[in-house]
Write a structure and sequence with these properties.
Elements lengths: L4 H28 L5 H27 L5 H22 L4
Helix pairs in contact: 1-3, 2-3
Length: about 100
Amino acid sequence: MTGWVRPWVQAVEIAVSAPVVIGIRTVGMVRGGWPPSAKARREYSRMVREKAEGFTRAAVVAVTTPPRDTARFAAAVLAPVHQRVVANRRRLGGW
């Protein structure tokens, strides 16, 4: 049972952090006006690139890791997305 702590914590942190990041970025987009500044365009590009990289890494782990231990497998698949979401929440100032 203790093996499931890590994937559950990852899932909870993703569920809490993702809406915070979305909210911060949405407010930034609304406040930024049109046309977006160079800084805003870099952030938008980063946002798209990070999502693609995170989910691609998660998919590669899911396809290439034999699921011998289901808890470890779940944690490994969640890890790339978890890392990106939590890092973005911290970087963008969402507590």
